[in-house]
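dumping this here so i dont lose it
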């Protein structure tokens, strides 16, 4: 599985011996390349939606990026498949191009995490592609990546939680 994670250039933040992290407004001004993200699953637009679904299932990914000649042209998400294919028959014959979201909003590794968060919130996106200056797909930032980034700032608070939430009872104890 280590092959699936983007190389060290995009994962510099996760070196051992790192100082305690602080979560404040400046945290979200850090570049995207500091998120721990996986390399994208890339398909051509002529492949079928059925092929995309199999890859998404096998790689446990919620989307695939669509590229022609190594340039991003779209993104195909679980939501695209549910809204545009699931009620119809034909996932095995429909092409990715017919179902993908063309020209999705993209970011570059140096863009701040705050911009990604804003785009995800305003646009309702769960996945945002990260590309290089030539529009070549490098990674996909998911909501899970953002949550993981935030939780990394509170490891003791999360790891030391009891297995289940402690809830108060409405009944009095005793006689």
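and the seq i came up w/
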């Amino acid at each position: 599985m280590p092959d699936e994670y983007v190389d060290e250039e995009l994962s510099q933040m996760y070196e051992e011996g790192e100082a305690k992290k602080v979560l404040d407004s400046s945290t979200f001004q850090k570049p995207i390349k500091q998120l721990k993200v996986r390399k994208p699953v890339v398909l051509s637009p002529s492949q079928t939606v059925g092929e995309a679904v199999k890859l998404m299932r096998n790689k446990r990914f919620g989307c695939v990026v669509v590229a022609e000649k190594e340039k991003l042209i779209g993104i195909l998400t679980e939501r695209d498949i549910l809204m545009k294919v699931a009620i119809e028959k034909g996932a095995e014959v429909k092409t990715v191009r017919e179902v993908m979201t063309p020209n999705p909003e993209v970011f570059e590794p140096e863009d701040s995490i705050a911009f990604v968060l804003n785009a995800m919130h305003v646009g309702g996106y769960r996945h945002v592609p990260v590309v290089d200056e030539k529009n070549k797909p490098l990674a996909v930032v998911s909501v899970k990546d953002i949550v993981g980034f935030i939780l990394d700032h509170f490891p003791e608070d999360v790891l030391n939680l009891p297995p289940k939430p402690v809830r108060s009872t409405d009944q009095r104890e005793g006689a």
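The chain has one domain: 2-159.
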